[in-house]
Design goal:
Elements (H helix, E strand, L loop, with lengths): L2 H11 L4 H14 L4 H7 L8 H12 L9 H7 L6 H7 L7 H10 L4 H18 L5 H11 L9 H6 L3 H10 L8 H7 L6 H13 L3 E4 L2 E4 L13 H20 L16 H23 L25
Antiparallel strand pairs: 1-2
Length: about 325
């Protein structure tokens, strides 16, 4: 293994011990002021779907306030800024980096032309999102450059493209053994609750984020087991759950008890002692339920299970 790879693996193994990591980085740089470039080259921007996470990976490795190359003061000066305020705002996603800063950062990281273009696209996606504009084209370009096809944890940028309730239903429907790649058939299979236009757009967006793929004219699930992370506040995630709750209301009225099940429980809970454990238990149950009952090639229907745990009461001052 090359020394650069050994160095990077060693730092990453120790990343939870921040003090030791920062001390090692500082001592390493004291012996060789350019040795950080080996670590820089080992961190691939193609592993990131968010420009700020990419930038912060260096800060977390070397430390904000050490004497290393990526403390805020040294880094800002190297980029041509008098104070670290602009860079700090970018790292905290309080400001989208302007083109000049993006190019200076790319030069500082010694990025290749394709890496620089990918970096620019990540920033462009954030700009379009902030303006409420469609960023599908930028996302496609980024995927093409990075050659990304599979994800485990779906980035919130990608999720926002497919947050409508029917998108994930379409993803699951594609893998049913009786699936027919025909808009009219899909429209009827989904109880005519989704327009044909929405179906076409939903399938296109699922392809864009790599959740389904088309091979020889046939659609298929990309077999990605994905999640959005734990308890992340997001308008897109809220939109997704609202859509699913509305479908549950319809099912309560329209479907027979032979095909659906509704249960509710009201209980007293000690929030400080039990709430976190309750969240963990629900997550574990959902994982086990999915592993036991989710089918792929043998499935002939798509089901939805919603679980909500929320508070009826609030604290009242005496």
């Amino acid at each position: 293994m090359e020394s650069g790879k050994l160095e990077y693996s060693f730092f990453m193994t120790l990343e939870k011990d921040q003090y030791l990591t920062k001390t090692l980085a500082k001592n390493k740089l004291a012996l060789n002021p350019t040795s950080h470039l080996k670590v820089v080259k080992e961190i691939s921007i193609f592993e990131f779907d968010d420009y700020s996470e990419f930038l912060n990976s260096y800060v977390n490795l070397f430390g904000k306030y050490t004497h290393g190359p990526y403390n805020l003061t040294n880094w800002s000066k190297r980029l041509g800024y008098r104070s670290p305020s602009s860079l700090t705002m970018v790292l905290n996603k309080q400001r989208i980096p302007p083109t000049r800063m993006v190019l200076r950062l790319a030069e500082d990281f010694k990025l290749t032309s394709s890496e620089t273009k990918y970096f620019e696209l990540l920033v462009e996606i954030e700009k379009l999102k902030a303006k409420g504009k469609d960023f599908t084209a930028a996302l496609k370009s980024a995927h093409k450059i990075a050659k990304k096809k599979k994800y485990q944890k779906i980035d919130i940028n990608h999720f926002s493209l497919v947050s409508d309730w029917y998108c994930y239903v379409l993803k699951r429907l594609v893998s049913c053994k009786n699936f027919i790649n025909d808009i009219d058939w899909i429209h009827r299979a989904l109880r005519k609750k989704v327009t044909k236009g929405q179906i076409k757009e939903g399938l296109d967006r699922l392809k864009t984020v790599g959740l389904i793929e088309e091979v020889d004219g046939k659609l298929r699930d990309a077999n990605q087991k994905i999640h959005t992370g734990d308890q992340i506040p997001s308008a897109a995630i809220k939109n997704h759950h609202i859509g699913m709750i509305h479908q549950a209301l319809d099912a309560l009225q329209e479907q027979s008890v032979d095909n659906r099940m509704f249960q509710a429980l009201i209980l007293n809970l000690n929030k400080e002692e039990d709430l976190k454990n309750a969240f963990d238990d629900i997550a574990e149950f959902v994982s086990e339920f999915n592993a036991k009952y989710s089918k792929e090639e043998s499935s002939n229907s798509v089901y939805q299970m919603n679980i909500q745990l929320f508070e009826h009461t609030q604290e009242v001052e005496q």
